[in-house]
Amino acid sequence: MPVGYSGTPLPKKLGIRATMRLAVLGSERAGLDYAALLGALPDGVQIGSAAGRDTELVHLFVTRRDLLEQQLGTLRGTLADSAVVWVSWPKQAAKVPTNVTEDVIRELALPLGFVDVKVCAVSAVWSGLKLVVRKALRSGHGA
């Protein structure tokens, strides 16, 4: 079973649970075989290439700021407030051309109501930043 860069299985690092609905965006552009990267998954996980209202976790791979900005805006309007968005960008040491950094992700995500709660190594090339909707903005929570 493949393991994440730190030795922990990647599905566990990302918080993928049984029967979860997962959307993977941009992995083809990134040249990734996402299924191989994940390895064994919990039972019943459904992986798609488009995010909808019932998507519980999105893993977005980006190398360009403009695409990140567009995708985050779309996801914020599409996903339920309880969904998780992992944004992955190439590590500086990977020498992959990019204008996305951890700071850029925060700069674009925070005004949309997202807050970052975790960072992890996805692979030797990709880092990941976990975004969730700020609690005060979630349905059923007072401001």
Topology of helices and strands:
Layout (H helix, E strand, L loop, with lengths): L9 H5 L6 E5 L8 H5 L7 E3 L8 E5 L3 H14 L5 E7 L11 H8 L4 E8 L4 E8 L10
Parallel strand pairs: 1-2, 1-3, 3-4
Antiparallel strand pairs: 4-6, 5-6
Provide an overview of this structure.
The protein is of the alpha/beta class. It contains 4 helices and 6 strands; from the N terminus they run H-E-H-E-E-H-E-H-E-E. It has a single domain, classed as Rossmann fold (3-Layer(aba) Sandwich). The protein has helices spanning 10-14, 34-38, 65-78, 102-109; strands at 21-25, 46-48, 57-61, 84-90, 114-121, 126-133. The protein has a 6-stranded mixed sheet, covered by helices on one side. Helix 3 packs across helix 4 (102-109). It is globular and about 45 Å long. The relative contact order is 0.18.
In short:
The protein has 143 residues and is an alpha/beta fold. It is 22% helix and 25% strand.
